[in-house]
């Protein structure tokens, strides 16, 4: 989120030893009537397969070759994720389908450097664009970023106005990048309170990139997890009133279909990254994060770069994911 | 192969080309042998390097585990000053999320609750997706001794004088399923009741609906997650807006020192609650 408030950073969240996880078709769409409960025999220590070592050597050698970066990205001829070489240590079959990011720490980043807060937000905007490019390149299907929360309106007016202007700029950049890199754009949140000009730019960008088939970038603007749940309650009540559904149809599964994130192929994130060392989800996608792997990073968001994303993805790929091993039943607990 | 003469520099003779070609082929075979030997040695070398790397990493993690165990012992024995005086008032409500398979270790859960009671935590919400702890709640309460269910604690009981630990047992059905039931209730209340004006559902309306179906509204300040995965396993979503989430590792490796450390870290965090 570009404008989360300043707070004292807690000590670093030390990670417990990595646990090897089995290969499983990654699916972030968890509904009650799916049971994915495979448990891996835990291996406390890091384990890398020997073939990967040679892959490390090969990929390092290929990374040394100049010009590869530009070769991969060219107007209208973006290599598909299957063709792009992944960084060392990452496995294509274990890439998360949906990554969510709480972009925290822009203000603190600027304050630490004696810069105006606006510079921090700009740096955050650049980091967000780069993050989107990398996710698109490495085969992540959906990227959701928490840009502005419903609670952020009480920030100083100048800062809020600047942010709205910055969102317009970033959206325009997204439009251009999206056309080049084949990604789509969606916006979730209560758009009614956003400036008209921003809404127009967002609508144009969404429309222009609608047909793209690559990464689906979702920007959460004026979003709140509770608001998301409430709007579903309102929606389903209206649907029942209009006779579209019956009251007994208001179930958890039906509820999930009405959330703001339902427009994506993978509505529930596999991995949530939060920067700046805070260990909470701050009212972001409350419903959707039930089985999402949480990854907290000490760095401020403008400093979150390619290496950090590789670390996050690598950490994700080495974790067990059981989706709770939960199978819906009608028994009451 | 045609035979023709070549001047041999060493012997000063004209040597048949066929012999030279044989020599070249013999040389090639030698080179191939050497290359093959190098390749084999290289593979063995790589394997050895691999084993050594594994060993180093294994020793490293073993050392880390030892250090953590020592640290935990020192913290729980009160030798570290900074962990002695915990500001427990900041932890008004603590959530413990446990993987359902690990939740069957009731002795471990009781030990954890005893530690929390000793630290001074007064209200704990125990969650596992399948409701295993809910099923064993009588046994847990009985073995714990000075514990009451949250719903039995009356408002008049002042928290500070509380000599017992208040426990709430929650499962997956108290989360998403409860929200769906609350939505049903809201529809019945606001849409079916005649010509009553249809309100815009707000958070306070939702909270009232959740209360009406028996859900606790209290938002935990801190959530400790025990299990292999670093997620909250479907803890009631409505309640964790600003909850600090800390992954503690597996229940079987839990340590009192780690618990104290996690709570201490939380007490040092400044929460702005989104404002």
Strand content of chain A: 5-15%
Most extensive interface: A-B, 66 and 70 residues
Mean pLDDT reading of chain B: 84
Oligomer: heterodimer
Structural class of chain A: alpha/beta
The best one-word shape of chain A is: globular
How is the CATH topology of the largest domain in chain B named?
A: Undecaprenyl pyrophosphate synthetase
Count of DSSP E strands of chain B? 8
Instruction: Give the CATH superfamily of the largest domain in chain B.
Output: Decaprenyl diphosphate synthase-like
Q: Output the helix-strand order of chain B.
A: EEHEHEHHEEHHEEH
The second-level CATH architecture of the largest domain in chain B is 3-Layer(aba) Sandwich
The chain-level structural class of chain B is alpha/beta
CATH class of the largest domain in chain B: Alpha Beta
Query: For the CA atoms, what is the radius of gyration of chain B?
Result: 35 Å
Largest sheet of chain A: 6 strands, parallel
Widest β-sheet, arrangement of strands of chain A = 3-4-2-1-5-6
Which parts of chain B are unreliable, with pLDDT below 50 for 5 consecutive residues or more?
none
Enumerate how many helices of chain B there are, as a single number.
7
Model description:
Chain A: It holds the Pfam family Prenyltransf. Chain A: Residues 1-35 are annotated as: Disordered. Chain A: This is Alkyl transferase. The complex is a heterodimer of chains A (333) and B (275). Chain A has helices at residues 50-63, 68-72, 106-112, 117-137, 157-181, 196-208, 225-241, 252-257, 306-317; strands at residues 98-102, 142-149, 184-188, 216-223, 271-274, 293-296. With 333 residues, chain A is an alpha/beta fold. In chain A, helix 6 links the parallel strand 3 and strand 4. In chain A, helix 5 (157-181) packs parallel to helix 6. The longest helix of chain A has 25 residues, at 157-181. The two termini of chain A are 37 Å apart. Mean pLDDT of chain A is 77; it is low at 1-78 and 326-333. By secondary structure, chain B is of the alpha/beta class. Chain B has helices at 17-76, 106-119, 132-135, 137-144, 176-190, 203-212, 256-267; strands at 5-8, 13-16, 94-98, 123-127, 147-149, 165-170, 222-226, 244-249. In chain B, the strands form two sheets. Chain B has a six-stranded parallel sheet, covered by helices on one side. In chain B, strands 1-2 form a two-stranded antiparallel ribbon. In chain B, strand 1 (5-8) and strand 2 form a beta hairpin. In chain B, helix 1 crosses helix 7 and helix 5 packs across helix 6. Chain B is elongated, with a radius of gyration of 35 Å. Classes of the chains: A alpha/beta (333), B alpha/beta (275). The interface between A and B is large, with 66 and 70 residues.
């Amino acid at each position: 989120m570009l404008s989360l408030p300043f707070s004292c950073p807690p000590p670093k969240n030390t990670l417990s030893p990595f646990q090897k996880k089995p290969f499983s078709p990654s699916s972030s769409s968890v509904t009650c009537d799916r049971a994915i409960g495979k448990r891996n025999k835990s291996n406390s220590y890091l384990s890398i397969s020997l073939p990967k070592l040679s892959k490390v050597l090969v990929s390092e050698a290929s990374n040394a070759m100049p010009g590869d970066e530009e070769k991969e990205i060219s107007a209208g001829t973006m290599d598909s994720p299957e063709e792009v070489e992944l960084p060392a240590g990452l496995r294509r079959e274990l890439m998360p389908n949906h990554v969510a990011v709480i972009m925290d720490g822009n203000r603190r980043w600027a304050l630490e450097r004696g810069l105006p807060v606006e510079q921090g937000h700009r740096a955050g905007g650049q980091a967000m664009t780069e993050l989107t490019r990398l996710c698109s390149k490495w085969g992540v299907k959906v990227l959701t970023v928490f840009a502005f929360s419903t609670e952020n309106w009480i920030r100083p007016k100048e800062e809020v106005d600047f942010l709205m202007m910055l969102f317009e700029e970033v959206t325009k950049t997204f439009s251009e990048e999206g056309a080049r890199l084949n990604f789509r754009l969606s916006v979730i949140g209560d758009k009614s309170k956003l400036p008209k000009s921003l809404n127009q730019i967002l609508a144009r960008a969404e429309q222009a990139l609608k047909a793209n088939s690559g990464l689906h970038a979702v920007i959460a603007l004026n979003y709140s997890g509770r608001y998301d749940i409430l709007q579903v309650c309102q929606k389903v009540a209206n649907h029942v009133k209009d006779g579209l559904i019956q009251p007994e149809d208001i179930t958890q599964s039906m509820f999930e279909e009405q959330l703001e994130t339902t427009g994506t192929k993978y509505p529930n994130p596999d991995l949530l990254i939060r920067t700046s060392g805070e260990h909470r989800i701050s009212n972001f996608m409350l419903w959707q994060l039930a089985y999402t792997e949480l990854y907290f990073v000490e760095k401020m968001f403008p400093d979150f770069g390619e290496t950090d994303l590789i670390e996050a993805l690598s950490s994700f790929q080495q974790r067990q994911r059981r989706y709770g091993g939960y199978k819906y039943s009608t028994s009451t607990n | 192969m045609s035979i023709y003469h070549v001047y041999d520099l060493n012997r000063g003779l004209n040597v048949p080309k066929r012999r030279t070609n044989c020599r070249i082929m013999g040389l090639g075979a030698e080179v191939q042998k050497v290359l093959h030997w190098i390749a084999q040695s290289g593979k063995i070398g790589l394997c050895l390097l691999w084993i050594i790397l594994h060993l180093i990493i294994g020793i490293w993690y073993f050392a880390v585990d030892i250090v953590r165990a020592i640290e935990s012992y020192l913290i729980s024995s009160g030798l570290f000053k900074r962990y002695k005086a915990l500001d427990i008032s900041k932890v008004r409500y603590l959530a413990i999320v446990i993987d359902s398979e690990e939740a069957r270790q009731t002795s471990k859960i009781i030990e954890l609750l005893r530690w929390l009671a000793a630290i001074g935590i007064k209200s704990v919400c125990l969650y596992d997706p399948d409701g295993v702890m809910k099923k064993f709640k009588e046994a847990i309460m009985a073995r714990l001794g000075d514990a009451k269910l949250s719903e039995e604690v009356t408002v008049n009981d002042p928290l500070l004088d509380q000599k017992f630990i208040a426990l709430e047992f929650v499962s997956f059905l108290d989360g998403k399923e409860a929200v769906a039931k609350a939505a049903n209730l809201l529809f019945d209340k606001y849409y079916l009741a005649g010509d009553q004006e249809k309100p815009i559902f707000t958070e306070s309306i939702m909270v009232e609906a959740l209360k009406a179906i028996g859900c606790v509204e209290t938002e935990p300040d801190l959530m400790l997650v025990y299990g292999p995965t670093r997620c909250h396993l479907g803890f009631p979503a409505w309640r964790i807006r600003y909850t600090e989430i800390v992954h503690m590792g597996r229940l079987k490796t839990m340590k009192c020192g780690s618990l104290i450390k996690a709570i201490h870290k939380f007490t040092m965090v400044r929460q702005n609650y989104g404002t």
